Amino acid sequence: MTNIRIGLLGIGTVGAGTFQVLKRNQQEISRRAGRGIDIAVVADLNAERARQIVGDDVEVVSDARSVVARPDIDVVIELIGGYGIARELVLAAIESGKHVVTANKALLAVHGTEIFAAAARKGVIVAYEAAVAGGIPIVKALREGLVANRVQWVAGIINGTTNFILSEMRDKGLDFQAVLKQAQQLGYAEADPTFDIEGIDAAHKITLLSAIAFGIPVQFDKAYVEGITALHRPDIRYAEQLGYRIKLLGVAKRTERGVELRVHPTLIPAKRLIASVEGAMNAVVVKGDAVGTTLYYGQGAGAEPTASAVIADLVDIARLQGADASHQVPALAYHHDCQPAEAPPPVLPMEDVVTSYYLRARVADQAGVLATITSLLADAGISVDALLQREADEVTDFSEGQASQPQTDLIILTHETREGTFNAALEKIQQLPSVLGSIVRIRKEELD
Ligand SMILES: NC(=O)c1ccc[n+]([C@@H]2O[C@H](COP(=O)([O-])OP(=O)(O)OC[C@H]3O[C@@H](n4cnc5c(N)ncnc54)[C@H](O)[C@@H]3O)[C@@H](O)[C@H]2O)c1
Ligand SMILES: N[C@@H](CCO)C(=O)O
Ligand code: NA
Fold first, then answer.
1. Which of 33, 94, 350, 426 has the most CB atoms around it within 10 Å of its CB?
2. For domain 353-444, is the CATH number 3.30.70.260?
């Protein structure tokens, strides 16, 4: 069989990793693919740096547009990132009948409907294993290994940068900005790191997983997104004292009313395996009705772990190239021409999400405060699961005068309730004169 010819667009962190792993493991990869895989041309705005990485045997150009239309290229690997030129290049490659491999979750979470429809029309593959949880083969697991299941929920630590920040802050007491800088130097962070710390990157990934798991369209605009920038150290400590770890979690859950799609800091029981996932590592838990709970763990970011997924997609394509498109695994796991009997379930607004909560209120240390707060919760039908009272040790955002009175931290874990109901109760508690400063609220998932 002839070698498959690749156009590699963007040779930064992931592109360089892909080039190096392909070179290092060339023979083995070719034997598995059943044919040779040649990087025929590399396009990067920084052609000089690209040349240093690939040497003299590979053609280097600076104009990526010149690659996507070339008839001698079979597959385009898009590793530039972003929504702009990346979208244009991917659509142009599809239009000229080329298969595409991309690690670009932002692009697919926002423009996936358009891109996957264009690929289906042309009978080409758009493969994106590297886009979700880097080297962990979670797309393959969900689309193929778990195909028999009605998936109940998917929950994951799917942003390496934020997990790295939370781990370093907790273990070494390091400052947020210093750890973020380290994550950027290690090549984990997005070009715009607010995508990481504000939860946007994790939301891109859980959006893709929700589409694969539940057969719903890719709907990033419906995802609830909350990052880690408002997390305080005392809450990380109190959570530990209650037997929980705080992680930035992406959650996609099937309910009778619709699909929950959300990213936020979350208390997870410390006894769950996923609670021990530290540093830039990722983990995804999938619960299926037949298989039960399954866990996937590995490096979710970085040059070679991500390259591992890019090359796995390449090999899939090399094995399938020339075959009838009906042999392809559908991009989002469900065949385009097999419509469901009912319309796909809606993504629920956040106030209709049902979960449990951690709340911390800094209160005046006086009789009756706890009883007032718990009775406001009880009035709303919210039952308390656990309580903790701790001497306040870090004065935060109180008005003058409040800081001088005796105060204490009240920490309450609730049982499950509707978010809208919880918000209304929280508003009433916040207005109590004995509550000093803003109440902290963090969602909690048992993941059982
Ligand atoms: N870094 C990771 O750990 C990781 C993991 C999974 C997915 N991703 C995704 O992979 C993609 C690439 O990420 P990265 O970390 O390698 O980024 P990077 O910034 O290191 O690399 C991007 C490369 O693209 C080049 N480039 C930019 N604009 C270009 C253009 N118009 N034409 C040609 N080249 C251009 C840049 O010069 C650079 O070399 C992104 O979509 C990212 O979200 C990254
Ligand atoms: N910025 C991403 C890269 C991997 O998708 C992360 O930190 O997880
Ligand atoms: Na992956």
1. 94
2. yes
